[in-house]
Amino acid sequence: MSDDGNYRRVDPSRLEQLVIKLFSAAGVSDEDAQFMGHVLTDADLRGVHTHGTRFAPRYVESLREGSLNTQPNRRLVVDAGAVGLYDGDNGLGHVAAARAMEIAIQKAKDHGMGSVSVRHNGHCGAVAYYAQQAVDAGCLGFAASTGGIAIAPFGGTEQRCGLNPISWAAPTRHGWAFNLDMAPSVVAGSKVDMVRQRGERLPVGWAVDAQGEPTDDPVAARSGGTLLPIGGYKGVGLSIAAEILCGVFSGSRSGAEGTGSGHLLQAIDIEHLMPLAEFTDGMERMIEYVKSSALAPGSSGITLPGELEWQKRQEFTAQGIPLDGPSRRSLREAAEEAGLPYTIEL
Q: Is residue 118 within 8 Å of residue 263, measured between CB atoms?
């Protein structure tokens, strides 16, 4: 086992500035570079390192080799009342997804609900960010995306179903929003990749090999094997439902055919039905009731989706973001290649 699992703290502001400069050097607009620095660092601040700044060097490489468009012609190609279709023109996925949610929010303010599909887009990272956009605007938020094909259908052995993430979010009276962000697999594919990069083994129960046998080998899990769905056939059903909403419905992917990532961004304006304060009062009663449960043996407390990420944000903002060895190394190498100083570590 390597020592790459050793984490070191990095300064959030310096990390964000490094990522901005990496994207600027790759030829994207200043606005896109600024946003990518923000959104990737935001994921790390929430402890979602699988979709944080570790991806920056990979995106930059895709921009330089031309598989991602540095100057995309993003546009709303269908605008029909409460619904719309946004074309990302194969640019940075995070930017298009965020803009699509902004449009969905405005539609929600106008019509009570807004729904915008996205086609021809790049990887959009952690979908919780976009659901949180809706919450920040006083809405309920839903965000979902197509992901890599890595799950076997129920009763099958081959990769046919996507690691299609979904996020659903609602405002509360606390500093954190309820924000459920999950893949239909037991674990995100990026987490398996991070385990492999650190030279570690997988917990049994995450994946099976090409023969359908349980494996703790991250290479076998991603090379001919499959990741296990949550809840058996239920996880497969969630994957396929997200595939329909984000892939088929946007025109991005159906079966083995695909043209970039597809997403669905939705917002519901709460005040079309009730005052926001009335809603958050109801949320508070619900949260208090859920947390009133007696604790299970060994439990230190009950947390809801979004709460732990908020706690990590407070810690990491004050003490620095912990990044593992492979993530720091790839950022350092990307900085050196771009002729930029690497000064993020505390």
A: yes
Query: CB burial class (10 A; 0-12, 13-18, 19+) of residue 248?
Result: middle
306-316 pLDDT per residue, tens: 999 999 999 99
Cα 332 from Cα 337, distance rounded (Å): 9
Please list the residues that pair with 80 across neighbouring strands.
83
Q: Are 132 and 254 in contact (CB under 8 A)?
A: no
pLDDT tens-place string over residues 183-241: 999 998 889 999 998 999 999 999 999 999 999 999 999 989 999 999 999 999 999 99
Q: Quick one: tokens of 78?
A: 């269908």
Cα torsion 78, 162, 35, 269: sign: positive
Residue found by looking up tokens 């729904």 in the block: 115
- Domain ranges across the chain: 8-185+229-276+308-338
CATH topology of domain 8-185+229-276+308-338: Ribosomal Protein S8; Chain: A, domain 1 (3.30.1370)
Other beta carbons within 10 Å of 295: 10
56 in Cβ contact with 19 (< 8 Å): yes
